[in-house]
Amino acid sequence: MSDNQRQDTVDEQSEKATDSSEHEAAHAGQQEAVEGELEAGEADEAGGDAEQVDDPEALRQRIGELDDALAEAEQRAQDNWEQAVRVRAELENTQRRAQKDVEQAKLQAQEKVINDLLQVKDSLEMGVRAAEDAEADREKLLEGSQLTLKMLDQVFERFEIEELNPQGERFNPEYHEAMSTQPSDEQEPNTVLHVVQKGYRLKERLLRPALVVVAKQGQGASGGDTSGESSSGGDAAS
Questions:
Q1: Residue 235 to residues 8, 100, 177: CA-CA distances in angstroms?
Q2: 161 and 202 Cβ atoms separated by less than 8 Å
Q3: DSSP code per residue over 85-131
C-alpha cells in the first residue's frame, strides 16, 4: 500500500471515531435533559402539594367537612340512644301488661270457684238454721245435706277435681298414704282395706293423698307374717 492510501485510511478511521464520539455525547445530553425534566416535574408536584396544604381556604373546607361528619355521627348516636330508650320502655310496658293479664286470669279463675262455692255455703247455712229448730224434721235435714253435698260434687266436676276413694284397690304410693297395715284373710296383701280420708286430684296433679289402711298377709295363711305393726305415713308392706 502506498503512503497516500495509508493516509486516506487513517483519515477515514479518524472521521468515524469523531462521529461516534459526537453521537455518544448527543445521546448523553438527551438523557440528561429527560432526567432534568423529570426532576423538575417532581419538584413542581411537591410544590403544588405544599401550596395546597398551606392554602387556608382548603384547610377551612377540610375542617368544615370534618365538623359535618362529626355532627352527623353525633346525631346518629343520639337517634340510636333514643330508639334504645323507647324499646326498653316498650319492653317494660309489655312485661307489666303480661303480669297484669296473668293476675287478672288468676282472679277470674278464683271468681268462678268462689261463685260456685257461695251457693254451697248458702245451702249449708240454710241447713244449719233448719237444724236449730227444735221441731226440725230429721229426714228433711238429711235430704238438705245430701243436696248440698251434691252441689259441691258438681262444683268439683266442673273444675275437673277428681275424688280418690281407693277402697279395695291396689295400694298406690303416688296417690295413697298408708296410715297403718292390718292382717286380712279376705283381701290380698297390699290392698286398701279402709279409707280413713278421701284424696283429691286436679286432673293429674295431686291435691291431697288418700289416707288408707292397707292389708297384709293374715295369720290364717300358711307362712303368714304375724309380726306386722302399724306404720304411719309410710308405704304399705307387700
A1: 144, 43, 7
A2: yes
A3: HHHHHHHHHHHHHHHHHHHHHHHHHHHHHHHHHHHHHHHHHHHHHHH
Cell triple for residue 136? 226440725
Residue 180, burial from CB neighbour count under 10 angstroms (0-12, 13-18, 19+): buried
Does residue 237 contact residue 203 with C-beta atoms inside 8 Å? no
- The full set of domains in the chain, from first to last, is 56-159 (3.90.20), 163-238 (2.30.22.10)
Give the other-Cβ count within 10 Å of 192's Cβ: 22
Q: Are 230 and 181 in contact (CB under 8 A)?
A: yes
User: Which amino acid is residue 21, in one-letter code?
Assistant: S
pLDDT class for 227, splitting at 50, 70, 90?
very low
- Report pLDDT digits (tens) over 183-212: 998 889 999 999 999 999 998 899 999 999
- The residue assigned the cell 292382717 is 183
212 and 169 Cβ atoms separated by less than 8 Å: no
Residue 236, number of CB atoms within 10 A of its CB: 27
With beta carbons less than 8 A apart as the criterion, state whether 156 and 202 touch: no
What are the Cα distances from residue 57, in Å, to 45, 107, 195?
19, 75, 103
Rounded to 10 degrees, the C-alpha dihedral 102/163/212/204 comes to -50
Question: pTM of the prediction?
Answer: 0.53
